[in-house]
Design a protein that fits this description.
ATP binding, single chain, 12 strands, 4-stranded antiparallel beta sheet, about 30% helix, about 25% strand
Length: about 270
């Protein structure tokens, strides 16, 4: 297993937020973390990419507990693309931001060599962002930023990719392009996706979080049953494979079950 999360317990602001969360992701697998707002998805990701130390439990990447690795060793294994990219300093070009992904491999004082520059160009090209290389990062649109941040994560050559709402800000074509790109990398991925339709297309398996607990996990079709969607998400919907082979979510005409009854004529 590339990623193993065992019995993770986290409290924030004096309140338990995660209760014994256990999940895993194997080699080349894409695992989706889904659940309603506030269910603990981002908190799990923070623990996985080593920005939040859990009260209890362990996160292992390639067999090693991330808290027994140095921050640099952990960064060589795990790369994250997060919703809040405000940590990016003003005044850096896109190439410079992507090159930051090489830092864990040679340390802060190391200098980028020709191989690093080539890796940056290749990652930008793979994310269809090569034409943005000389632009100032902060001048980019939200969707352009997401592509560049994915390029920065890929240039890190991670064994595990952690994605928090990667497709936010993207137009519909760009969403599919970026999801295809993630799949083509072959990197083990743990991805938070609010859009269940995208989750069922991208993920090999899903883990469903509800109020800080894993309430279901497994292959998409077996896990996202109508009963679970009603209980956890509060919507009437079905997930099934259509004749064209694509798995889709279909929401009922009245997904919330709140429509007023049709008046009876008489
Ligand atoms: N720093 C904090 N202090 C106190 N509570 C926090 C803190 N950060 C998060 N929480 C709480 O922890 C719970 C889980 O939050 P988290 O952001 O992990 O949920 P989420 O599933 O990612 O939500 P969303 O889908 O809305 O992004 C929420 O109830 C949130 O209010």
């Amino acid at each position: 297993m590339r990623l193993t999360v065992e019995d993770l317990c986290v409290a924030l602001g004096g309140r338990p937020v995660l209760h014994d969360v256990t999940l895993d992701a194997g080699e080349r697998e894409i695992v989706g973390l889904v659940g309603p707002n506030g269910s603990g998805k981002s908190t799990v990701l923070r623990a996985v990419y080593r920005s939040l130390r859990p009260e209890r439990g362990a996160v292992r990447v390639c067999g090693d507990d991330v808290w027994r690795l140095s921050a640099r060793q952990a960064a060589c294994r795990t790369a994250a693309v997060l919703q809040d990219a405000t940590g990016n300093p003003v005044g850096l070009s896109v190439s410079e931001v992507v090159a930051m992904g090489r830092t864990p491999h040679h340390g802060l004082l190391g200098r980028d060599d020709a191989g690093d520059h080539r890796a940056v160009r290749e990652a930008l090209a793979a994310c269809t962002a090569g034409h943005l290389a000389a632009r100032e990062f902060t001048s980019l649109s939200g969707g352009e930023r997401q592509r560049v941040l994915l390029a920065r994560a890929l240039v890190q050559r991670p064994r595990l990719l952690v994605l928090d709402e990667l497709t936010n800000h993207l137009d519909i074509r760009a969403r599919f392009e970026l999801l295809d790109l993630v799949r083509s990398t072959g990197v083990t991925t743990l991805a938070v996706l609010h859009d269940l339709d995208l989750a069922v297309r991208l993920c090999d398996r899903v883990v469903v979080l509800h109020e800080g607990e894993v309430v279901a996990s497994g292959p998409v079709l077996e896990t996202l049953t109508s009963a679970l969607l009603a209980e956890v998400f509060g919507v009437a919907a079905t997930v099934r494979r259509h004749d064209d082979g694509v798995v889709r979510v279909t929401y009922a005409a009245d997904p919330l079950g709140t429509a007023a009854p049709t008046p009876v004529r008489g």
